[in-house]
Amino acid sequence: NAGVTQTPKFQVLKTGQSMTLQCAQDMNHEYMSWYRQDPGMGLRLIHYSVGAGITDQGEVPNGYNVSRSTTEDFPLRLLSAAPSQTSVYFCASSGDRGYGYTFGSGTRLTVV
Amino acid sequence: AQKVTQAQTEISVVEKEDVTLDCVYETRDTTYYLFWYKQPPSGELVFLIRRNSFDEQNEISGRYSWNFQKSTSSFNFTITASQVVDSAVYFCALSEVGAAGNKLTFGGGTRVLVKP
Fold first, then answer.
1. Handedness of CA B58, A96, B24, B48 (dihedral sign)
2. A21 neighbors A87 (Cβ within 8 angstroms)
3. Mean pLDDT across B50-68
4. Cβ of A97 and B107 within 8 Å?
5. Could you tell me if B36 and B91 are in contact, meaning their C-beta atoms sit under 8 angstroms apart?
6. Rounded to a whole number, what is the distance in Å from the CA of A81 to chain B's nearest CA?
7. Mutate to test the interface with A, among B45, B48, B50, B51 (most CBs of A within 10 A)
8. Distances (CA, A) of B98 to A55, A58, A61, B29, B55
9. I need a labelling partner for A107 at 20 to 30 A (CA). Which of A17, A83, A92, B96 fits?
C-alpha cells in the first residue's frame, strides 16, 4: 500500500543513547517533515525537507539531525537522548505545496 | 509568524448531539491553506479537509461541515448527530504558501468524547 512507513513503532532508550527513526514514502513526494506530538501542544515541526539533499530546521530542532539522500527516505537521528525527547514522533510527506501531508503511523519514544 | 489556536481542549457530548470545534488562525500571508485532521484513539492522523484562502464556501461532507470565515480568521468544524466513532482528537492546521517547505502549523487539538 502506498503511504508513509515509520519504524519502529515503539522504542525505549536510556538517557544518552542515540538512535535513528526511519521514515520512507513511496509516493514520490518532494516534501517530507518530522513532527513531535506532546500532550496539549499539538504537533511541532522538528525538521523538514523540500527534496533530496535539502533539509532545514523547524520549530524544535535541537537534539535532532536529519538527512535526505533519496526522495524516498528521511531518517531522524537522536544524537544523545534526553527525557525531554519522550514523545510521539510522526513523519509525513506531501506531493505539492498546500496539499497537506500524509502521515506515518507514528513512533512512541520513551527516554528513561 | 503563523499561529493556530484551538481554545477548546476537550468537549464531551452524548451521542446524537451536534458538536462544533473552534479554530482561529493568524497569518500574514494572503494565500494559505487550512486543514483539519482527526486522530482516533489508535493514534494515526487522518486528513479530513483542505481549504484555500480564496475559497470561503462552506462545505458539507456527510455529518461533517466546515465554516470558513476570513473576516474573523476562523475555520470551524461541526459534527452533526455525533456518534461514538467520532471520539478522537481533532487538529486544525495552517500552511502558508509563501513559507518554505510546505510547513504545517498545528493547533493544540480538541479532544472530543462522544458518550453512548
1. positive
2. no
3. 88
4. no
5. yes
6. 23
7. B45
8. 17, 15, 21, 7, 18
9. B96
> Nearest chain B Cα to A43, which residue?
B106
* Cα–Cα dist A53/A13, whole Å: 29
Question: Can you read off the three cell numbers belonging to residue A98?
Answer: 498546500
Q: Is A98 on the interface with B (CB under 8 A)?
A: yes
CB B39 within 8 A of CB B6: no
User: How many whole angstroms separate alpha carbon A78 and alpha carbon A62?
Assistant: 9
Q: Any CB–CB contact under 8 A between A102 and chain B?
A: yes
Please, are residues B79 and B62 in contact by the beta-carbon 8 Å criterion? no
Q: Between chains, do A99 and B50 touch, taking CB under 8 Å as contact?
A: yes
Q: What is the pLDDT of residues A13-53, one digit of tens each?
A: 999 999 999 999 999 999 999 999 998 778 999 999 999 99
One-character DSSP codes across chain B: --EEE---SEEEEETT--EEE--EEE-S-SSEEEEEEEE-TT---EEEEEEETT----EEETTEEEEEEGGGTEEEEEESS--GGG-EEEEEEEEETTSGGG--EE---EEEEEE-
pLDDT at A1: 60
Q: For residues A56 and A69, what is the distance between their CA atoms, to the nearest angstrom?
A: 14
**Euclidean distance between CA atoms A108 and A78, whole angstroms:** 14
Using CA coordinates, name the residue in chain A closest to B33.
A98
* Pick from A58, A99, A103: CB nearest B103: A58
